[in-house]
Amino acid sequence: MATPRLGEIAPDFEATTTEGPIRFHDWKDASWAVLFSHPADFTPVCTTELGRVAALEDEWAKRDVKVLAVSVDPIEQHEEWKSDIEEVSGATVGYPIIADDSRQVSELYDMIHPGEGDTSGVRSVFVIDPSNKVRLSLTYPKSVGRNFDEILRAVDALQLTDRGPFSTPADWREGQKVIVAPTVSTADARERFGADAVDEVKPYLRYTSAPA
């Protein structure tokens, strides 16, 4: 199965989770979603990752993002492992963890890479928008923990650029200036945002303040 590509509708599925059964599109209910896989329960890197996601609960909510973890381990094992995650992180795991024993979800999202050594998932991340389109995907090897601050930053950038003719520069953070889209001329940008609000570095590289 090919990896879902940017702009495509994220595959829908039914699954058993630590928060009960779900159908993915109904569960996300026109919210943003971050679907991320982890290789195995009771493993060190995964424990830190799921704990970090739990600790960021308020940040996900502020952005109207629902988070959903998945691995090929069974539901009983997920339930047992949650207490370890909460003990290590000091945060409650309030989001669902999919028990993908059948590998249905992992195969739909191409999360199992045989070259990585076994039939567990690699560290895949999919950011999915309210219309169920895939907007970002990342894949990390099993040995490298993810930076969830970067995933939040990317969600901020996606949500901002959906609101206007903007792009974000390298290393952009919320509150910093954005790039005027190439489809907008400098003259039109200055008329729209104000003559003093557009900084032309090159004819194709113009900065302006992000909208409030």
Q: Report the principal-axis shape.
A: elongated
Mean pLDDT: 91
CATH architecture of the largest domain: 3-Layer(aba) Sandwich
Any idea what the radius of gyration is?
A: 19 Å
Characteristic key phrases:
212 residues, alpha+beta, Glutaredoxin, Antioxidant, Horf6, Chain A, domain 2, 2 domains, five-stranded mixed sheet, four-stranded antiparallel sheet, 31% helix, elongated, Thioredoxin_domain, thioredoxin peroxidase activity
Please describe what this structure looks like.
The protein is an alpha+beta fold and 212 residues long. The protein folds into two domains: 8-161, Glutaredoxin, CATH 3.40.30; 163-209, Antioxidant, Horf6, Chain A, domain2 (Antioxidant, Horf6, Chain A, domain 2). It is 31% helix and 22% strand. The protein has helices at 24-28, 44-55, 57-62, 75-89, 104-108, 148-161, 186-193, and strands at residues 14-15, 22-23, 32-37, 65-71, 97-99, 123-128, 134-140, 166-167, 178-180, 199-202, 205-208. The strands form three sheets. The protein has a five-stranded mixed sheet. Strand 10 and strand 11 form a beta hairpin. Helix 2 (44-55) packs across helix 4. The longest helix is centred in the middle third of the chain and has 15 residues, at 75-89. The radius of gyration is 19 Å and the shape is elongated. The protein starts with 13 loop residues before the first strand and ends with a strand. The mean pLDDT is 91.
Task: Please summarize what this structure is.
The chain has seven helices and eleven strands. The chain is of the alpha+beta class.
